[in-house]
Amino acid sequence: MQIKRYDALSINEAMKKIKADMGQDAIVLSSRRLKGRLEVIAARDNNSEVSKESEAEKCEKEGPDTFSIIRSDVNELKSFIMDFKKQGGVYAELTEIKETMGLLFDVLGIQNNGRVSSSLSKVYYYLISTGVSKQCACALIEELNNDGSTEAPENHHYTLAAVENIMKRSIASSYKNTRNTGKKRISAFVGPAGDGKTTTLAKLAARSLFKEKLSVGIITTDTYRIGAVEQLKKYADIMGVPMEVASEKNGLERVLNKFADKDTILIDTPGKSRGDESYLLKLKEYLTMGLPLETNLVLSMTSSQESMMDAAARFDIIDYNNIIFTKLDDSKKFGSIYNVIDHVGKPVFYTANGQNVPHDLNKMDPAKLARLIVGHGSGR
Hints:
The chain is of the alpha/beta class and 380 residues long.
């Protein structure tokens, strides 16, 4: 394989140089920003037409080195993505760079007919089919290979179980060193409009009241959406718990003092556009009270992965503690859950899968999440 380094102002300029120099078969291995310029490493397979030694055999011989390249590129790509998000307006270029990871994976032999390569290829494309991103799938396959978990490559169910275990360990890392346990006395719910904050709050209120036998107080700060107060008031009346409206920070502090005797206080917030930065700044100030507050970011599985990633990044200004994924009943694949957790490193204590209060709420942990993502539709 021929590998060369190029310097350019943009990815488009780099691609023109690469194609002119190395031909149409060249691919981009990695990219990074250096003092306002773009450094791109490209490669071309010199033996693409005829090769007596299959790419799968090369993978078997070169295994750890091959996958160390993937690891390096995945880590570099993550750093590159974060830099791009700060700059904004570069999603087209970012998408193009993401796609090169898939090409890199194929060139390195994952898609060929050898014993190891065939097994890894099958698992790789299964993960893609569940919605796991190419970058996350690369990292999982790399660890699968390094773990020696492909000892029985002909047993697809065995290999899926091994990948599920690796995913569980990866998800578990987001639960470590968190400031919360999922059981803080005061909990706020934030997130984009329509993602299910109010219904999720009602489910958690019912769980606390009826299952955990705790006293509950509900506060809504959502005076923007028509019918928002009435909807939550109806839930509160059915459960027989007190509800108060607090449209300003001073009002919120007053109601919190009023609910001083409650075991659990749940706070609903307006669901405005995630692009409204002034709202996010106001919400941050609103929730800064010097109290042990837990903030839950609520994301709907009916949203695109791009929307969920964008919301997770924008609401980071609030320094939320946990993520709650809702509307799982309207989705057929759950790989995007893993993508978001891997990206933001926040734990998931609950998922919601319907409108029924309080039943359609599931307590989650790393093992359950991994089983949901990998096991769904696998026939195991």
